[in-house]
């Protein structure tokens, strides 16, 4: 198990003038409590390495409450201040698949190191690693607080990019001219709504995390960077809410179209019923088997009755047209 942990763990150590990316050959090499001026970013894929986590925490004299936090099977969104450490747990959307899924990410932050633990391999942080390697921007001049800011910003940027991409597809399929009161179209609208609810839940969770990070006070960790990305999450949530309102309007329009069509059908059936009810009444009277029905003995009774029926039908149609019922 230790070898698996070491294979899934990488170290990026950097400063203004130095950069080194490496792997560990043993747990004893993982030294988080040295007095080096370099910043360390350790990244691990997987949460099943309980013994390894415990060994690293104890060997580096970290707050042993971390052991309990890392042993928890369910990691809700948390920001916990420990002894010279910050424990951050986030549920993050995996957007590289057709179906949106969630994964857990944990960040253990001190002034000199950031340990990120991810549930699944792969992430959105490749551009951060590339900046560190190429020494672009100010990232190598900053400490772990700025690195955590960039990581959370990368998550938000990925949300926005994925949301905009899905929004374009949604607009093309669900635009007003394509609205049809069919089960297939309704399913498309409902699927998009569920997708937006998933986006909104993830964005709200991230916003709450950022709000908590803004209030944290820990020596050597500056939280001033998080105000900007909080605004990004608020804007994303506002965009999602606006599209949800649009989808709700489209669903209401679908129901209105269905109601209108049903009304048209009922109106047609009602008109036909009103026309044929008196005709059926007359036919019923003269279809009775009584002997003393004078009109039956009339030589032109049949034609007179047909004429009366025609007049009644014409008068009914004329009345409906005058009322503009059809």
From TrEMBL:
One Pfam family hit: CorA
Topology within the bilayer: Multi-pass membrane protein
Membrane-traversing stretches: 269-289, 301-320
One of the record's GO molecular function terms: magnesium ion transmembrane transporter activity
Catalyzed reaction equations: Mg(2+)(in) = Mg(2+)(out)
A cellular-component GO term for this protein: plasma membrane
Top-rank taxon: Bacteria
InterPro entries for this protein: CorA_cytoplasmic_dom (IPR045861), CorA_TM1_TM2 (IPR045863), MgTranspt_CorA/ZnTranspt_ZntB (IPR002523)
Primary location: membrane
Localization (cell): Cell membrane
Kinase found in the keyword field: no
Keywords, in A-Z order: Cell membrane, Ion transport, Magnesium, Membrane, Transmembrane, Transmembrane helix, Transport
Biological function: Mediates influx of magnesium ions. Alternates between open and closed states. Activated by low cytoplasmic Mg(2+) levels. Inactive when cytoplasmic Mg(2+) levels are high.
Assigned protein family: Belongs to the CorA metal ion transporter (MIT) (TC 1.A.35) family.
Name of the protein in question: Divalent cation transporter
């Amino acid at each position: 198990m230790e070898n698996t942990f070491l294979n899934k763990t990488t170290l990026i150590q950097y400063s203004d003038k130095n950069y080194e990316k490496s792997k560990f050959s043993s747990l004893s090499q993982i030294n988080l409590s040295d007095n080096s001026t370099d910043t360390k970013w350790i990244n691990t894929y997987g949460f099943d390495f309980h013994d390894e986590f415990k060994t690293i925490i104890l060997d580096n004299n970290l707050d042993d409450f971390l052991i309990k936090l890392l042993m928890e099977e369910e990691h809700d969104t948390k920001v916990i201040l420990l002894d010279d450490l910050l424990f951050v747990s986030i549920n993050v959307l995996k957007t590289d698949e057709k179906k949106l899924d969630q994964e857990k990410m944990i960040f253990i932050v001190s002034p000199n190191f950031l340990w990120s633990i991810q549930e699944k391999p792969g992430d959105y942080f490749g551009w951060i690693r590339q900046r560190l390697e190429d020494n672009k921007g100010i990232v190598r001049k900053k400490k772990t607080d700025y690195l955590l800011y960039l990581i959370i910003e990368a998550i938000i940027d990925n949300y926005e990019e994925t949301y905009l991409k899905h929004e374009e597809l949604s607009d093309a399929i669900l635009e007003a001219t394509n609205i049809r009161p069919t089960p297939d179209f309704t399913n498309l609208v409902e699927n998009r709504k569920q997708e937006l609810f998933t986006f909104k839940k993830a964005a709200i969770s991230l916003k709450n995390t950022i709000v908590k990070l803004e209030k944290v006070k820990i020596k050597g960790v500056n939280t001033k960077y998080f105000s900007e990305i909080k605004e990004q999450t608020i804007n994303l949530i506002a965009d999602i809410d606006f599209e949800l309102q649009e989808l709700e309007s489209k669903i209401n329009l679908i129901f209105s179209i269905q109601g209108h069509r049903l009304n048209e059908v009922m109106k047609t059936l009602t008109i036909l019923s009103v026309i044929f009810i008196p005709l059926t009444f007359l036919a019923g009277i003269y279809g009775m088997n009584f002997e003393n029905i004078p009109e039956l003995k009339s030589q032109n009774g049949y034609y007179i009755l047909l004429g009366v029926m025609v007049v009644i039908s014409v008068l009914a149609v004329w009345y409906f047209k005058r009322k503009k019922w059809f």
